[in-house]
Design goal:
This protein is an all-alpha fold. The protein is built from twelve helices and no strands. Helix 1 packs antiparallel against helix 2 and helix 6 packs antiparallel against helix 7. About 1% of the residues have low confidence.
Length: 335
């Protein structure tokens, strides 16, 4: 029964993590927000770490004679934490829109070196596990503090519409990391006092990782919700852009058709009144509202020549003003 519980419990987390990776990947492609890229990488390391722990727990439960190489086990998990810690730094830097500084990586590598020392100095498996988890969570808590120090300094509240969601995620992380550190301190304290009942309880919490698992569930669901929300918003914006582009194309097409139709009407109008090629060119410009000097500049002729041709056009149309010329053309269009 115990092995079935361990199996289902760990498989459920792997499925949840895969869901987060899938949603984050799609959100990154849709929104091009680097945060989702680093979230996906972070959860890949979580899957690797969980798979290692899951395999170890399952082997212990199914095979009582199985002897695990404790040092190798913890060293591999430390390596997974380093990769995950780098993802945490990249993620935090994306949230505050800054390049990661060397300072941000110091707690990750310092804690990792400390954990290597714990493992190599032959601490008991029980104590090494608690120390490793608590110190790692303390480094993530330190990153949360760095995040808030940067956001308070830059006062980017109005610059980033998503800041409130980032703040809530970091606050949630800070709370659970603090609880996890306190849990580790409590375990070590009670263990030193040899209070067996409490040691058994906290040992159970250490094996199950209740506090961290609860945090993983809540954070994963929040990430999925946020990613879905950003996808919908991005899809809506993309749809609006696409519709606007289609409308612009349609209006441009109508404008081209109108211009082509009007041009053909001008040609017919000129042919109907037996105008010369030069008179037709000048008439087109007159209909566009061009003045004599503008017509002369465009056709590279003198203003006097323009006036002569316009006078000839007036005679053919039996008018003596431009307004009358426009009226004759509009009447012809309506026929």
């Amino acid at each position: 029964m115990q092995e079935i519980f361990v199996y289902i419990y760990n498989i459920a987390f792997l499925v949840l993590y895969l869901w987060v990776i899938n949603v984050s990947e799609y959100a990154y492609k849709t929104t091009n927000n680097g945060i989702f890229y680093y979230v996906g990488l972070l959860y890949v390391t979580l899957i690797i770490d969980s798979t290692i722990a899951f395999s170890s727990d399952l082997l212990k439960v199914t095979n009582s004679n199985y002897q695990i190489d404790t040092k190798a086990f913890y060293l591999i998990r430390i390596l997974a934490f380093i990769i995950g810690g780098i993802c945490y730094v990249k993620l935090m830097s994306s949230m505050i829109n800054k390049k990661p500084k060397i300072l941000y990586y110091i707690p990750i590598f310092a804690v990792s070196l400390l954990n290597v020392a714990f493992v190599l100095n032959s601490y008991s498996e029980q104590n090494a596990g608690v120390l490793q988890r608590s110190t790692q969570d303390a480094s993530i808590l330190f990153l949360c503090i760095i995040y808030f120090c940067n956001t308070f300094k830059s006062d980017s509240k109005g610059k980033n519409s998503k800041k409130k969601y980032y703040d809530r995620a970091v606050i949630l992380t800070a709370i659970f990391m603090t609880l996890s550190c306190l849990e580790g301190i409590l375990f070590l304290f009670l263990n030193d006092l040899n209070q067996n009942s409490f040691v058994i309880l906290t040992s159970y919490m250490r094996v199950i990782g209740f506090n961290e698992d609860l945090f993983s569930i809540i954070l994963s669901l929040l990430i999925i919700w946020f990613a879905k929300r950003e996808e919908e918003e991005a899809n809506k914006n993309n749809l609006e852009i696409l519709v606007q582009q289609k409308m612009n194309q349609y209006q441009s097409m109508l404008h081209e058709k109108e211009n082509a139709s009007e041009e053909s009407q001008v040609v017919e109008f000129c042919n109907y009144y037996n105008m010369t090629k030069r008179e037709s060119e000048i008439l087109r410009l007159v209909l566009k509202g061009k003045k004599n000097q503008e017509i002369a500049d465009e056709l590279y002729i003198s203003v006097g020549t323009v006036k002569t041709h316009i006078y000839s056009i007036y005679k053919k149309l039996a008018v003596d003003r431009r307004s009358q010329l426009m009226h004759v053309f509009m009447e012809y269009k309506e026929k």
